[in-house]
Amino acid sequence: MKKLIIAAFAVAGALNAADHTIIQKDRAFSQTEITIKPGDTITFKNTDDITHNVFSMTPGMEFDLRRQGPGASSTVPFANEGTAEVRCSIHPRMKLIVNVKK
Ligand SMILES: [Cu+2]
Fold this sequence. Notes:
By secondary structure, this protein is mainly beta. The chain has one domain (18-100): Immunoglobulin-like. The protein has one helix at 2-16; strands at 19-25, 28-29, 33-36, 41-46, 54-56, 63-64, 73-77, 82-88, 95-100.
């Protein structure tokens, strides 16, 4: 019985995970800050006509989408709680704060 309960929780967690969309447009992110829950994902979509390189070097929340051309999109999972600073290596003024908390 105990195993069944754990399995049910695991499935519920996966079903509750949400995907959020952040657009790159006019050399900026579509919002400057977003708050999500652990296990959620963010899809970064480049709707500009130029290339971006979105990344985070925040410890425990690192990722690097590398060169992301016009029309490309990539989905990044955020498993851990914390605050990630997301930047673009090509456009230093692009900045997004991702708050991950339960
Ligand atoms: Cu950029």
